[in-house]
Amino acid sequence: MSEQPTSLPTSWTPSQFKPKNARTLHEHRHEASDTPASSENKKHNIREYTLGEEIFNSVTHGVGALLAIAAIPILVVHAVQDGGGIYLFAALVYTLTMLLEYTMSTLYHALATEKAKRVFKVLDHSCIYLFIAGTYTPFCLITLGNAGGIYLCIFVWAVALAGVACEAFWVFRPRWISALLYLLLGWSVVAFLPQLIANMETPALWLLAIGGLCYTVGCIFYVLKRIPYMHSIFHIWVLLGSVLQFLAIALYVI
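-> structure tokens emitted (254 positions)
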């Protein structure tokens, strides 16, 4: 007599026969979407920019890069005609760090490849420190050259290099640390305010001060990154500050 087939339990469900290491289609899709960078961003609660924000970010600092290119020959000609080697050195340090920063920022926001974006983010944020120190250089070496400017120049470049080290080795740090370093760099000149007033014309002081205020206001929007388009507004304030301080340097320093 042949054996009857064993009947399935009345409580049988397909999941009972699922292999131990199997994945559902939904699980595979979910895992594919969790790239290392996106998982790290989620871990540190970092909001990614939308396409519209990135277009705006790229355009604003793309304009800055073009302005920096135009600034190079203007200041170089001024330096050669009106000053010596120190003028030319200060002009090149200032304009090249400005071009470097706006170019890195534009590429960071314009690139869509995740790995490239992560690299250019570090380069962009590192170049912010270099640009701030580069902006100080003409004032330190020319305007304050005989009034302790070399010490201020050494200080701001030391802080800038410390900021670059933070960007390279402490990527997921609190954003207020970056903002604090930016402000520390930007307002270090207050310690030399009497010497600056004595050696600069009043319009230049106003351009320098208002430009610094633009950067300071921009830092407020920088730390509000979680709100859409706040970083784009930060870009606008930075660009405005750069234009004002370029005018101070081009018209009254070099």
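The chain has one domain: 48-252.
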